[in-house]
Structure formats: C-alpha cells, structure tokens
Amino acid sequence: MDLVVNGAEQSLDLDPRTTLLDALREHLGLTGAKKGCDHGQCGACTVLLDGRRVNSCLILAITLSGSEVTTIEGVDHPVQQKFLEHDGFQCGYCTPGQICSAVGMLDEFSQGWPSAVTGSGPPDLSDPEIRERMSGNLCRCGAYPNMVPAIREAAER
C-alpha cells in the first residue's frame, strides 16, 4: 500500500486489519496522533486525510492507497502558535488531535460549510460556532476556554 504522509511517499506492507492510527504510530514512528479511546469518540487520533479531519483509529490503512495524510508532525499552521500564546493545552495528550481538528475545521469554515450552530446566512466564527465544530475532540483537563480564542485568532490571520 502506498500513501503520502506529511509530504513523503510511504510504501507499507500491512495486515489488512491495521488502522491508520496504528500504521502511523507503529510502522512509521509518528506518535503525535494518540490512541485515546480507540473507538472514534475522543478525537485524540485526529489527522488530516486528503485535507479533511478524520479519526485515524476508525479507518483501515489498506483502504487509503494513494491518499495524502497529514499528522501533527506535518502541520505548519498559525493555530499552533495561538495554542501556545493562549495556553490552549494542559497535559498535552489531546493537543495534536485538537490542532489537527482545528486546522481542518478552519478549512471547512472558510469553504462555508455550516454546522449545527450556523443560522441562516454565511457562517460566523463565534465562540459557540467554534465549540460546536470542535465538539468531537475531548480534553480531560478542560482547556477549552483557552482553545476557543486561540482558534478564533488563528482564523483572523
């Protein structure tokens, strides 16, 4: 199976049951995406697949031949600096998934994708809008109040 990970072509010979998360962590040594719940409920494993955010623990790697994957190790986005400036993390376990999700979410927002909070008219990146769009990523430490302004300010850049 061939795929591009963080801009580098990778050729992997994997068991068909291997998830993208396990391929990244165990076969490529990219440990930024975390195995939190392994059921797609926490978002710690979030990566970008062909530019869209996904829970890598739910996707079989064998189905991704020819795809492009970006992990936290390959992200270069203003949201990273804003997370530092706003102390948008505590223990840091969820931070890679939160940042990958924020990058994907901001791209979705810029394309005009609505959320459950979006009313009529164009979406507005309000605090409730950010919270709704990031709701698939959990933080056990409760750093959400610092993440929201970090994401808003990154969007303004």
Automatic annotation (TrEMBL):
2Fe-2S ferredoxin-type domain ranges (all copies): 1-75
Keywords recorded for this protein, A-Z: Iron, Metal-binding, Oxidoreductase
Top-rank taxon: Bacteria
Organism encoding this protein: Paractinoplanes pyxinae
A Pfam family reported for this protein in Swiss-Prot or TrEMBL: Fer2
Record's keyword annotation contains Oxidoreductase: yes
Protein name: 2Fe-2S iron-sulfur cluster-binding protein
Listed InterPro entries: 2Fe-2S-bd, 2Fe-2S-bd_dom_sf, 2Fe-2S_ferredoxin-like_sf, 2Fe-2S_ferredoxin-type, 2Fe2S_fd_BS, Aldehyde_Oxdr_Iron-Sulfur, Beta-grasp_dom_sf
